[in-house]
TrEMBL record:
Presence of keyword Cell division: yes
Gene3D superfamilies documented for this protein: membrane protein fhac
Regions crossing the membrane: 21-40
Protein name: FtsQ-type POTRA domain-containing protein
Source species of the chain: Aeromicrobium wangtongii
Amino acid sequence: MTLDPFSERIRSERRRRWIRIAIAVLAVAGLGALVWLIWFSSVLAVRDVEVAGRTTLKQAQVLRAAQVPAGRPMARVDLEAIEGRIAALNRVDTVEVSRSWPRTVSIRIVERKAVVWATVGGQVRGIDRNGIAFRSYGSPPKDLLEAKITLTDSRDRVQTFQAVAEVVVAITGQDPALLRQIRSVSAASKDSIELELDEGRTVVWGSSDKAERKLVVLDSLLAIDAARYDVSAPDQPTTRE
């Protein structure tokens, strides 16, 4: 029996509709399977943890602090929580935690680095670029400058240590010859930093601002025979015998 064109068109449209429905059902089923695979199955669960960048910290210390949940689906691992726990370690400066699919959590650490040392609470402590006293030494390290700061308020002390560290970092990077002349750095506040040079000379540095300009001015001033050089206001430097 031959169908008339109208009936054939209806049948064709019906077939296309069922095909579209079947495709939609398959797509939903596929999406559901994918969600289950990523979020709930053990196929993409945590199996390994990689730690990079540590120098003084032990692998076990980092892993113990990280508390990475082994066996949990990778997509459900709280990376920020892991970062927060590792960042609480005294020697950690920065940390980044990421997923390395299919089954590895990667931890990249940058440890704090001592810029100067100071006596804090009767102990020789290493101070990092942020003014944090993060480690102890049995004796003063010979490769670091001493920061002489006697502030008792912890917040003021950290800010002053940070300012001193910024000055030392600037001098280290821009004027190594001057660095070799410095015996110690002292400060009564973050805005009153002084460099104690060899031969009994002193540089009044002031705050950590305008370090580059101060170095240029100081380079010229040191040609003058003086006991005290003041570059705290670099556009109006002074010397004193």
